[in-house]
Amino acid sequence: MTNKVIINTDVSKGKINKNIYGHFAEHLGRCIYEGFWVGEDSHIENTNGIRNDVVEALKNINIPVLRWPGGCFADEYHWKDGVGPREDRKRMVNTHWGGVVENNHFGTHEFMMLCDMLGAEPYICGNVGSGTVQEMSEWVEYMTFDGESPMANWRNENGRKEPWSLTYFGVGNENWGCGGNMRPEFYADLYRQFQTYVRNYGDNKIYKIAGGANVDDYRWTEVLMREAAHLMDGLSLHYYVHPHGFWNKGSALDAREEEWFITMKKALHMDELISKHSTIMDKYDPDKRIGMIIDEWGTWFDVEPGTNPGFLYQQNTIRDALVAGLHFNIFHEHSDRVQMANIAQTVNVLQAMVLTEGEKMILTPTYHVFEMYKVHQDAEKLDLSIETDTYQLNDENLPSVSATASKDADGRIHLSLCNLNPSEESKVTVELRGISNVENIAGRVLTAEERNAHNTFDNPENVKPVAFDGYEVEGEQLTVTLPNMAVAVITIG
Ligand code: AHR
Predict the structure, then answer these.
(1) Per-residue CA distances from 432 to 10, 324, 471 (Å)
(2) What is the pTM of this model?
(3) Contact 61, 23 (CB under 8 A)
């Protein structure tokens, strides 16, 4: 069977919030230290301590929003340890991630500087697990109060007179787990209490994000919505693709087709999770005022052999690229509720965009998907329906093709297609209703020969997008031949 996509090019289904292309960077392994921060005295080229190559690369994917400092680290982080002269900052142990020394050289000022350099909005995650209400309240005052106040004066002494603009603030992280092992009823009460003191100073309006559920913990969502919906702007959800569960993740470089299949299946599961959590949210918030904030997602494999198990360093292959493409297509489908998503994590940790080794840096297949898909940021999602063939392994089936389309501010249409099938190409007929003559088409595709194809420091461009002309046009119809295991973006107009 041929796969069939119908796009009603005049029917908008609402805006795709650019924050769906957000990121997450934690004090974990080599994400912050080495990945972003090398210090001013490093031989690696940097600007005020932040490495130039990584910033340059990331600017090209238009990171809209960056979540920091964790993750589990956030619930052990005391922000006051990370401001003031660096040489005086407290050295602590990063107990959650590898037991290594955290010298606090990267703190609030450095994070805000990084966001400025990237052109990203900051998303700060506060400490509910081991912090106090006062500490959280004073952090917000430190960052956003304009004028005379104890925290604003301290910020001034530390070299920053103007307050920063801060919109996104998370009240805790994974409070069902590393953030305090709480029951939802208990966290809901704490959320209500802590958020009271997350103040709006002057014109700075905070978008408050409550710590949400793990995977399919629907009771968590139910309780949080029931008890605290009126006090939140967003509710988070965390879901990772671990092929065989948390305790048996497998290697990022495993090339077996079984591993490929289960990974695609788990990536597609995101759709069911969003639908079911959304249904609960709809009960309490039918107008969809509250955003679903998927502030941790991505693949989580075993660490690369010989690396610190607490550093979560994994390679990244064409399989990860497909996982990224599928997630974006799903997020777009639910863009009426999903207002932000943050891939875990930007550099050197889990499904990273960029890997570094000393002064070397490579871009991953996932990076390329973010780069190709950036055309969808803030674009109008177009009405699309799809009938797809199946990709079968043993006695299980998955859809072989996934698609999404949007129209940008200049009226150009961007169609993104993923072929999940690692062995067979897929033919897709695309009916572009509302366009009589399809012209001015350009495409790019990311594909590979091997299921575990990836980039290395010796072969950094093994997987990268190339121009794509595997389509034919007839009137309003496009017939696309997608290579096996491919992510393609086609622009029309
Ligand atoms: O991203 C790695 C960890 O995964 C985060 O610290 C935590 O929130 C989640 O369990």
Answers:
(1) 10, 25, 14
(2) 0.97
(3) no
Residue 162 known to be catalytic: no
CB 485 within 8 A of CB 479: no
Annotation says 296 is catalytic: yes
Question: Of ligand 1's atoms, which has the minimum distance to the CA of residue 74?
Answer: 6
Query: Which of ligand 1's atoms lies nearest the C-alpha of 312?
Result: 2
Catalytic: which of 26, 34, 141, 296?
296
Question: Could you give the CA distance from residue 85 to residue 372 in angstroms, rounded to a whole number?
Answer: 41
User: Are 259 and 250 in contact, with CB atoms under 8 Å apart?
Assistant: yes
Peptide bond before 245: cis, by omega within 30 degrees of 0?
A: no
Q: Is 253:317 a contact under the CB 8 Å cutoff? A: yes
Which tokens is 83 given? 């401001």
Q: Among the atoms of ligand 1, which is closest to the Cα of residue 296?
A: 1
List, chain by chain if needed, residues with CB within 6 Å of any ligand 1 atom. 26, 70-72, 173-174, 296, 344-345, 350
Q: How many CB atoms lie within 10 A of CB 147?
A: 9
Are 305 and 341 a contacting pair, CB within 8 Å?
no
Cβ(26)–Cβ(69) below 8 Å: yes
Distance from C-alpha of 489 to C-alpha of 405, rounded to nearest angstrom? 9
Report the interhelical angle of 108-118 vs 52-59 (nearest 10°).
Answer: 50
Each residue's pLDDT expressed in tens, for the chain with a length of 493 residues: 689 999 999 999 999 999 999 999 999 999 999 999 999 999 999 999 999 999 999 999 999 999 999 999 999 999 999 999 999 999 999 999 999 999 999 999 999 999 999 999 999 999 999 999 999 999 999 999 999 999 999 999 999 999 999 999 999 999 999 999 999 999 999 999 999 999 999 999 999 999 999 999 999 999 999 999 999 999 999 999 999 888 889 999 999 999 999 999 999 999 999 999 999 999 999 999 999 999 999 999 999 999 999 999 999 999 999 999 999 999 999 999 999 999 999 999 999 999 999 999 999 999 999 999 999 999 999 999 999 999 999 999 999 999 999 999 999 999 999 999 999 999 999 999 999 878 899 999 999 999 999 999 999 999 999 999 999 999 889 999 999 999 999 999 9
